[in-house]
Amino acid sequence: MRRTSLSILFLLALVVGMHASTPSARAADAAQTVSGETKGCNGGDAVSCYNLAVDYDNGDGVAKDTARAATFYAKGCDGGHMGSCYNLAVDYDTGEGVAKDLGRAASLYAKACDGGHSGACYNLALDYDHGEGVAKDTARAATLYAKACDDAHASACFNLAVDYDTGDGVTQDKAHGAQLYQTSCDGAAGGDMKGCYNLALDYDNGEGVAKDTARAATLYAKACDGGHAKSCQNLAIDYDNGEGVGKDLGHAANLYAKACDLGDLKGCVNLGVDYDNGDGVARDQARAATLYAKACDGGNAKGCFNLGLDYDNGEGVAQDKARAASLYAKACNGGNAKACDKTGRK
Q1: How far is it, in rounded angstroms, from Cα 110 to Cα 175?
Q2: 258 and 290 assigned to the same domain
């Protein structure tokens, strides 16, 4: 099973909640707040500059103006407010309110990281990992991931675990990688589900930890509950085979359905097979064909092949040999050897 790749760019949520009894009262309160923040910012209070920038970012009490927001983030950053430096860096990263400038973004992430902002350390690590705004340096990236991980940034712990797992920027150490996956999985706000998934793979395969399929299943369950599609798929396979859990074809089918709904095309195919065979669900070949079609449309070669068989044999759909041939060709192009045999191609 392939491991999950490095996490995408972490962006700070910019939300300020306010409560008032009526829209007009809320608007008046917001305007008063903006007036106070403006006065504070003009007086050199960096926190007021930050809050004022957030107001302009969200159009809260003022007309939305991302360029104006960036100006106030800059003023807050100059005053030593690390959240302002971070948000200004995100603006330069994305070209929001300022001209996109990855080098400037990296400099601001560095300043905020030095000031103790773990999200900035994480984003700067991503920059060094990918060579965006800075020269590519995976060792420097690993150091920054470690700093953010020490400050309980779950995604940083996950990426550092991947580094130790693969020896990217650090000396390979699968045992330490597994420990970091655990830290990531256990992290704040429920943890990083990719960390739970990769740790489950470690327990499944005995990499960095003693092989323990029951522990793997528990971790897949946590990640699946957290919306990680591949974990639902792997846990379904466990219930299908009685691996680490008691065999339960009905529960396996439910998990394949969840994986499919979350976008895992293998889950769609496996649920289709269950409907084809009546395993854990009432047999329904038309439903199976619909699931194969969903997987095939998403680029899953096995789904195309199975749907081709349905059209070839008239199972769940009206028999259509031409349609079957087209699906076999698509599956073959996607790397399905059985489909290539059907088309006579090698």
Answers
A1: 30
A2: no
Residue 165 belongs to what domain range?
152-263
CA distance 306 to 85: 53
More confident residue, 100 or 18: 100
Would you state the pLDDT for residue 47? 95
The C-alpha atoms of residue 245 and residue 239 are separated, in whole angstroms, by: 6
Question: Under a CB-based contact definition with an 8 Å cutoff, are residues 179 and 157 in contact?
Answer: no
Does residue 191 sit in the same domain as residue 259? yes
pLDDT digits (tens, 9 = 90+) for 102-125: 999 999 999 999 999 999 999 999
> Quick check: helix, strand or coil at residue 138?
helix
Q: Which CATH number belongs to the domain containing residue 233 in this structure?
A: 1.25.40.10
Q: DSSP characters for 183-221?
A: HHHT-GGG--HHHHHHHHHHHHHTSSS---HHHHHHHHH
> How is residue 297 written in tokens?
């449309």
CA-to-CA dists, residue 232 to 53, 122, 162, 189, 225, angstroms? 41, 28, 21, 20, 8
* Interatomic CA distance for residues 343 and 208, integer angstroms: 44
The answer to whether residue 278 sits within a structural domain is no
